[in-house]
């Protein structure tokens, strides 16, 4: 295919810095965690304690079932805790590059200019596939080397190779899924949403099957990364499955790319209207109209996510199954109280996860100010008698609404499903504490986003590190023995005792203050800068 190699060089040259940032974050997390595990589990007592913890339903839902056999090593525990988590980040990286360099290029018009030259129809897609292969090969090598030099007890060359290669192919597999979805949708936003819906859906299916029947996890695709038994039996069969599926999906994608029209998708998700609705009478109603489908998808997705986690409350809060001797000692009422305490503690951690996920659509809406500005869409709005303040508040207001609805939907889904899964009563008011506390945390992060949108629009993507770090510090903080101050570097860590305790007033007011102050600064700087600054 003509010009494939030239396009590949162009993509690699253009995206090298973005890839370096991704590599530093992912490989750095893997290497730093590996270096710390020896000190965490250097004694037999610590090893026995973490193994017992990892076998509980709550931990199984997060990291997968414990399949390794005794004698256990630190490396086995590391692979057990990190594979599901690292796989998620590898998938995110591949989704980003896959959508950006395919559907994103079409939306911006760059691909149209490229194809106006002597370039074959499939050359751009083939170049993107080749770029993903190179990126994942480099990541696989770096991850393998990072583990080999970590000095972690129990590390073997075969296990490290399996760790690096499996994550590389796992990421490439989800990159191929994104390339396929990009052929079906007609814009980059739809391709991104579709890719993350698939990733999140498979992750939730993995979680449910792991807790209820781990044998059925084979059907979730995501669960393949749990079946490797790294540093124990080192099973390469799941790697073969991922590789075969990746090749098949890439082949189908290339075939579909030959048949679809440029700039369109194979699925028609909306029909163009000859005239706009009468309800569209300003920037907010226009923005709400344009974002109605993502809002519906996010709301339903968050409700299903909460319901999925709530459905395993029966297994998580089952002291009789996990510790029958303790259940006999406590008696029926005492066992119910103990089960409830475990469930509420688990719900508190999940509330943080829901808050982090709810931040994603909020920041996407806020950052749309600059994206729409670059595309020239806001120029059409400002040509009318519409103030900067009205436009700014329209984006910010919709971001607040979407994040609030998403967080509430997730907590409601968790409560409804959890109530049906347990034999004792759950107090909805305590679940609402999760919303009351973590929604201000989301607002605080949104305030940081508005600050960058107005003052430093070119650097606005830096804000994504706040929810990402918040997720890592909460999700893995306890297992990696993060100090208390490290967990509280983001607003998500300021409400760690909720919902088992009342909502603290000072952090709540601090979050609201951050939102208001940074929001005002963001607007002032946005109002004073030129539209062409980007």
Automatic annotation (TrEMBL):
Keywords: Membrane, Transmembrane, Transmembrane helix. The keyword Transmembrane applies. It comes from the Bacteria. The chain crosses the membrane at residues 75-99, 125-147, 159-181, 193-209, 236-256, 295-316, 340-367, 392-415, 435-455, 462-480, 507-526. This is ABC transporter permease. It comes from Paucilactobacillus nenjiangensis. The lineage of its organism: Bacteria, Bacillati, Bacillota, Bacilli, Lactobacillales.
